Amino acid sequence: MSTLITNLGSLVTNDPSLGTLTDAAVVIDGDRIAWVGAAAAAPQADARFDAEGRAMIPGFVDSHAHLVFAGDRTAEFNARMSGQSYTAGGIRTTVAATRAATDAELEANLTRFIGEALRQGTTTIECKSGYGLTTEDEARALRIAAAHTPETTYLGAHVVAPEFKEDPAGYVELVTGEMLDACAPHARWVDVFCEQGAFDGDQARAILTAGAKRGLIPRVHANQLHHGPGVQLAVELGAASADHCTHLTDADVDALANGETVATLLPGAEFSTRAKYPDARRLLDAGVTVALSTDCNPGSSFTSSMAFCIAVAVREMGMTPDEAVYAATAGGARALRRTDVGLVAPGARADLLLLDAPSAVHLAYRPGVPLTAAVWQDGVRKV
Ligand code: NIG
Ligand code: FE
């Protein structure tokens, strides 16, 4: 079954040889894109969809989210908006609620957030563990997540579990031993929160190296709240992504520019913690590949909206609208080392977002306005 989507006012392909097309059309065949080009030259297909001049982009690739949890942290957010600062200590509140929840409750929450994201155009989403912090609770978070996305990340090293408050070395031993054994079969990636009060550079190195030995590819929560060794460690270990990148020295920027690690920026976190935004312009000017993601979690960034992240990145982080849309699609794909998503080209997965707007610039130009006109995922119209 093939479908011709035609009369696209603009089409962002992210394919260097195609660029952004006007008066364009796309043919979907099964779960893949079969043809992309000028509407006037489009081939026949079994079905036809008239886009009526609207703009299309690849479905958003949200490469950083924490979606297996229970409870919320409204009170903490309220306190922050009255002047308290974010410390990540609230992670333990969510750990307690998550441990107390049933599998069915966790799965219902997860599917609700994935559905919420899909309705806003997100067709690929990464999901971390990190609110269980016991072998059993981390493994069940990943088992539940793996049933809904292939992009699962073992984050047993989110913070030191409360039971190990006096014995952080013992917790690192657990995370690199028994917990890793139980989690590795359900995860593609290994992550660590490298930050004051969480894990230092040596602990992070031990955790990422142990994960890599089990076939998990590293990614790092790096330089979020303070400057630290996370970014340089990520580059040194060939991590797919260094996430947050808020506090960077010139040496960190150089390391990213000379390495293969993507800088994933998460403006929802700075927005919701009233913190300084990362400087995307500095990274882009240095030649670093930048991704934009939501960091969706109940503490620091409770948004599933990639459009919101684009708008903030353009207004506050020095990105142009085109750069921000690229970072939220192709950038996320790079951060997840995926070549089948984040672009509209023959052979790519038919993950498409049709906007209720004549161009993708409207994602930043019309902040807060729901612009989803239609979403296809794996060739199936979902919205
Ligand atoms: O990416 N920084 C660490 N982890 C999350 C916050 C988690 C939480 O506050 O619950 C983040 O911002
Ligand atoms: Fe995060």
TrEMBL record:
Positions annotated to bind Fe(3+): H64, H66, H221, D295
Pathway of action: Amino-acid degradation; L-histidine degradation into L-glutamate; N-formimidoyl-L-glutamate from L-histidine: step 3/3
Highest taxon in the source lineage: Bacteria
InterPro entries: Amidohydro-rel, HutI, Metal-dep_hydrolase_composite, Metal_Hydrolase
Binding site for N-formimidoyl-L-glutamate: Y131, N297, G299
BP term (GO), one: L-histidine catabolic process to glutamate and formate
Cellular component annotations (GO), alphabetically ordered: cytoplasm
SUPFAM superfamilies: Composite domain of metallo-dependent hydrolases (SSF51338), Metallo-dependent hydrolases (SSF51556)
Amidohydrolase-related domain boundaries: 56-357
MF (Gene Ontology): imidazolonepropionase activity; iron ion binding; zinc ion binding
Annotated residues for binding of 4-imidazolone-5-propanoate: R73, Y131, H158, Q224, S300
Keywords of this entry: Cytoplasm, Histidine metabolism, Hydrolase, Iron, Metal-binding, Zinc
Family: Belongs to the metallo-dependent hydrolases superfamily. HutI family.
Purpose: Catalyzes the hydrolytic cleavage of the carbon-nitrogen bond in imidazolone-5-propanoate to yield N-formimidoyl-L-glutamate. It is the third step in the universal histidine degradation pathway.
Protein name as annotated: Imidazolonepropionase
Taxonomic lineage: Bacteria, Bacillati, Actinomycetota, Actinomycetes, Kitasatosporales
Gene expressing this chain: hutI
